[in-house]
Write a structure and sequence with these properties.
This protein has eight helices and 15 strands. It is an alpha/beta fold and 402 residues long. It has one domain: 3-Layer(aba) Sandwich (Rossmann fold), CATH 3.40.50.150. The chain has a seven-stranded mixed β-sheet, sandwiched between helices. A two-stranded antiparallel sheet has the order 6-15. Strands 7-8 form a two-stranded antiparallel ribbon. Strand 4, helix 5 and strand 5 form a beta-alpha-beta unit. The longest helix is centred in the N-terminal third of the chain and has 16 residues. The two termini are 23 Å apart.
């Protein structure tokens, strides 16, 4: 399960018509960039993790040097969500991408790439690596909720993984992305699954109990804010939020984007010891991922009265949203966000899915009440490990593995 942070004070906005700085140099940004204290706190935690060299704060693994190998490596990171789209000449924004290879590989595959992140340390790490490889990237430090340093319609593709969890207002991010996205552009983003996220660290010995209501907008409590990789242990408590599936999809619609792909998936479905994250992620998805597009143009209806949307030719190719996209390995995240390249994982594409079902499960039935209340009244999910053990009587409405 991912856990980390990002952000601080207000971005000094640049004129959208101002000259673009030479790639491989930072755009001029204010020293303080978070839009609120939540982001400022998370930024401090990210920099603490980066100083300690926690793997999630820097690119992991080593992509091949040949072009085809780089594309395969990048497709594992993006889980193939861009299909066969060529990146040559594309304008790509790697949003909150300071911890991975994506910005570098987009650039090396021909894209005019901008890396945007809150952490100065993470930007510096990627910049140093890109310089050694002779790769040109434009760098911007800022809060993902204020993309004022970026021009409207500036990007053809925006790739944004696993960081919405660190801001309380995901719709604000999506609105900003919609603004900087060009007509016909594609936005791919992922975050912690809003239902599953409530159950980490909640094993009772018999099942998992959600830490708060699915409908709560409060930060999800983290009992053990320790990031541990081998001998490295760092205490970095971050503010993290579960963004409901419906809220994410509706935010896309309100921002003028249409969703053409939604996936709920886990890095592995093999399971694990009772109470482990792997065991939980075998029965519930770890992540939710959405692909949204900006309409190509707005056209008038035949009689000129009502505007209608005319979509661009789909750049993804064949796009049955429920199809399985084969991946030889995937860049997976364990519960403390390490990037693990080459982990063999299935790809479960389930459009629709658990949002409403889990919402029903989490809230006690038969009572009229404020849906934001009652965190202590939610029901327990029972679980029996695949390795054996007896299954006790499950409470009404409990989710039990088959």
């Amino acid at each position: 399960m991912p856990n980390a942070s990002m952000s601080r004070s207000t971005v000094t906005k640049m004129n959208a018509n101002a000259a673009r700085l030479t790639p491989s140099h930072y755009r001029r940004m204010a020293r303080r960039v978070a839009v609120d204290e939540i982001a400022a706190h998370n930024e401090r935690m990210w920099d603490r993790l980066a100083r300690a060299g926690i793997p999630y704060t820097r690119p992991q693994g080593s992509p091949p040097r040949d072009r085809a190998g780089k594309r395969r490596f990048l497709d594992e990171i993006t889980r193939g969500r861009f299909g066969d789209t060529s990146f040559d000449g594309k304008r790509v924004l790697a949003l909150a991408g300071g911890g991975g290879w994506d910005a570098i590989l987009f650039a090396e595959l021909g894209a005019d790439t901008t890396l945007f992140d809150i952490s100065a340390r993470q930007l510096a790490t990627v910049r140093a690596l890109a310089r050694r490889r002779g790769t040109e990237i434009d760098y911007v430090r800022g809060d993902m909720r204020d993309l004022g340093a970026l021009g409207s319609g500036e990007f053809d593709l925006v790739f944004h993984q696993h960081s919405l969890v660190f801001v309380p207002d995901a719709p604000r991010v999506i609105r900003e992305v919609a603004r900087v996205l060009a007509l016909g552009g594609t936005y791919v983003f992922s975050t912690m699954h809003p239902a599953t996220f409530l159950f980490y660290e909640s094993w009772t010995g018999k099942g998992w109990t959600p830490k708060q209501s699915y409908f709560s907008d409060r930060p999800v409590p983290v009992k053990q804010p320790v990031w541990e990789f081998g001998r490295v242990k760092v205490v970095a408590p971050t503010y993290e939020y579960a963004h409901r599936t419906g809220d994410l999809v509706n935010a896309c619609a309100v921002a003028g984007l249409f969703v053409d792909g939604l996936w709920e998936w886990s890095p592995s479905y093999a399971g694990g010891p009772p109470g482990s994250d792997d065991a939980l992620e075998r029965i519930l998805p770890a992540f939710i991922e959405i692909r949204a597009r900006k309409p190509h143009r707005v056209a008038r209806a035949g009689d000129g009265s009502h505007p209608r949307t005319a979509h661009a030719e789909h750049p993804i190719g064949e796009h049955d949203v429920a199809r399985r996209i084969p991946v030889g390995g995937t860049q997976a995240l364990d519960r403390r966000h390490a990037e693990v390249v080459g982990h063999d994982a299935g790809d479960l594409a389930v459009p629709g899915a658990l949002g409403l079902g889990l919402a029903q499960l989490l809230v006690e039935r038969g009572e009229e009440r404020d849906p934001h209340e009652g965190a202590d009244e939610v029901q327990e999910i029972s679980h029996t490990a695949s390795t054996g053990g007896s299954r006790g009587a499950a409470p009404p409405g409990a989710l039990v593995p088959g």
